[in-house]
Amino acid sequence: MKLTITALLLIFNLTLFAQSKQIAGNYTRSLSEEGKHTIEYKLTLNEDGTFEFHSYTKLQGGTPPEVNKYGKGKWSVKNNVVTFSSDKKEDLNSKYTLDFSNSTARFITKKPRDKTDQIVKTRLTFLDSKMFWLKGIDIFKI
């Protein structure tokens, strides 16, 4: 009986680790109009459950013309929904000002059973965030 329970727990933990490893990686999104505006998002999800985010904005006629914003914290996944959190004492400072607390994103990839020629880019779609500009944004895995 103990052996059966141990085996089940091991299989369960391997499944969770495999899902996290699949989601971990670098994501990016670039929105630009040639010669006028540029908005870039870069997100790194580390396998140890931490993340770093960088937002770069360059707007023609903007004040200031270029803006860099950073965020960091921890992430976890359950049922393909990634939940982000930032500890105000540890993760937020003069450089890392973006608070990702209670932000969520859905991990989207082509299903293993899908044998069609349809191309599905692996991405995170932000569902909810305190940062209004992040809701609904797709960030693609590179």
Automatic annotation (TrEMBL):
The keyword Signal applies. This is Lipocalin-like domain-containing protein. It comes from Flavobacterium hibernum. It holds the Pfam family NlpE. InterPro entries: Cu-R_lipoprotein_NlpE, NlpE_N_sf. The keyword Signal applies. Keywords: Signal. The lineage of its organism: Bacteria, Pseudomonadati, Bacteroidota, Flavobacteriia, Flavobacteriales. Residues 1-18 form the signal peptide.
